[in-house]
Amino acid sequence: MGDFGNRFEDAAGKAKEGAGKAAGDKGLEREGKLDQAKADAKDAAERAKDKASDAAEKVKGAFKKK
Question: If I label 53, which of 11, 23, 24, 28 is the partner at 20 to 30 A Cα–Cα?
Fold first, then answer.
């Protein structure tokens, strides 16, 4: 989904949460919070993947120098 998709999911979650609060709908509020948590988890996973990829490139580079 990528960064844009995660941001969209987070924004949609915030909108659901706000709508749930305004309407007194606890289920919609929880659903919005869940959407935000999923977007945060996806962002964290993508950052971890990027860091692992960067680390792997550094290791490859170290072996190429020898």
Answer: 11
Higher-pLDDT residue of 9 and 58 is 9
State how far the Cα of 28 lies from the Cα of 41, in Å rounded to an integer: 20
- Whether 20 contacts 31, CB under 8 Å: yes
Q: Model's pTM, two decimal places?
A: 0.76
Cα-only R_g, the chain: 18
* Residue-wise burial string across 53-65, b where 16 or more C-beta atoms lie within 10 A, e elsewhere: eeeeeeeeeeeee
Residue 1's pLDDT is what? 53
Containing domain of residue 13, as a range?
2-65
For residues 65 and 59, give the distance between their C-alpha atoms in angstroms, rounded to a whole number: 10
What pLDDT, on a 0 to 100 scale, did the predictor assign at position 66? Answer: 58
